[in-house]
C-alpha cells in the first residue's frame, strides 16, 4: 500500500476542483485545490493549440511553483458549425464583452451569450458539439500521467438549468432530453467529459503511486 500522496488540483475554478476531488476521494490521496494553498502562484500563459498541450504546460508550471504533484486540466467546448470554436479559447471566448475583473458567473454568462449569437439561425441538426477534457499530472520534473474524456451533444437555443458551470446550461444531451446543467451533480459526473477523464485517470493512478 502506498503512503497518502497530496495532489494539487491546479485550478482556481471551485466547480472543477469539486468535480475532480469527488472522484479521487476514494483513492487515498489528499486532493486539494490551489485555493487551499497559502501561495500566490501566477497563472501560466495558455499558448497550446490543443487541450492536451495546455494541460501539460499547466501541470508542469504549477508543479514547479508548488513543489508538489499537480493535476491540471484543459477542457472546453468544440462546436462543429463554428469550425471547432470556442475550443481551447472556451474559458476566454467573450473576453471582449467583460471587464478585466469580472467574476466567473459574469464570464460564463458572456461566453454563453456570444455562443448563442454566433449560432443564431443554425438549425438543431447542425448544432452538434462535444465537451473535451484533457488531464495531465506533473511532478518530479516530468509528466506522470495523462487521460482524456469526451461527451457528445448539441447546443440549445437558451440556457436551461442551474447546476454545473460554464457552457452546461446550453449543452443538450439528446438521449436525456436535458442540458448538463439540469442534471444533479452525481449524474453529471457520471457522464461528463471531466468525469470520464478523471475516472480514467483514477484507474491508472495506482500504478504511478506504486500501488
Keywords for this structure?
211 residues; alpha/beta; Maf protein; 7-stranded mixed β-sheet; globular
Write structural notes for this entry.
It is globular, with a radius of gyration of 17 Å. The chain has one domain: Maf protein (Alpha-Beta Complex), CATH 3.90.950.10. A 7-stranded mixed beta sheet has the order 2-1-3-4-5-6-7. The chain is built from 5 helices and 7 strands, in the order E-H-E-H-E-H-E-E-E-E-H-H. By secondary structure, the protein is an alpha/beta fold. The model has no long low-confidence stretch (mean pLDDT 90). The protein starts with a strand and ends with a helix. Helix 1 packs across helix 5 and helix 4 crosses helix 5. It has helices at residues 14-24, 51-66, 104-118, 185-191, 193-209; strands spanning 5-9, 29-33, 69-79, 128-139, 142-155, 171-173, 178-179. Strand 1 (5-9), helix 1 (14-24) and strand 2 (29-33) form a beta-alpha-beta unit.
Amino acid at each position: 500500500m502506498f503512503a497518502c500522496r497530496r495532489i494539487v488540483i491546479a485550478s482556481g475554478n471551485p466547480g472543477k476542483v469539486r468535480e475532480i476531488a469527488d472522484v479521487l476521494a476514494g483513492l487515498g490521496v489528499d486532493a486539494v485545490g490551489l485555493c487551499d494553498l497559502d501561495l500566490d502562484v501566477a497563472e501560466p500563459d495558455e499558448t497550446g493549440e490543443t487541450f492536451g498541450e495546455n494541460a501539460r504546460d499547466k501541470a508542469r508550471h504549477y508543479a514547479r511553483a508548488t513543489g508538489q504533484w499537480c493535476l491540471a486540466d484543459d477542457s472546453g467546448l468544440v462546436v462543429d458549425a463554428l469550425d471547432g470554436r470556442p475550443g481551447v479559447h472556451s474559458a476566454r471566448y467573450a473576453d471582449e464583452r467583460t471587464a478585466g475583473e469580472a467574476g466567473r458567473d459574469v464570464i460564463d454568462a458572456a461566453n454563453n451569450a456570444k455562443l448563442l449569437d454566433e449560432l443564431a439561425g443554425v438549425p438543431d441538426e447542425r448544432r452538434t458539439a462535444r465537451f473535451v477534457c484533457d488531464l495531465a499530472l506533473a511532478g518530479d520534473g516530468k509528466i506522470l500521467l495523462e487521460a482524456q474524456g469526451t461527451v457528445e451533444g448539441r447546443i440549445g437555443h437558451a440556457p436551461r438549468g442551474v447546476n454545473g458551470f460554464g457552457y452546461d446550461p446550453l449543452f443538450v444531451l439528446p438521449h436525456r432530453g436535458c442540458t448538463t446543467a439540469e442534471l444533479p451533480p452525481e449524474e453529471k459526473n457520471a457522464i461528463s467529459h471531466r468525469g470520464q477523464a478523471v475516472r480514467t485517470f483514477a484507474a491508472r493512478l495506482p500504478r504511478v503511486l506504486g500501488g
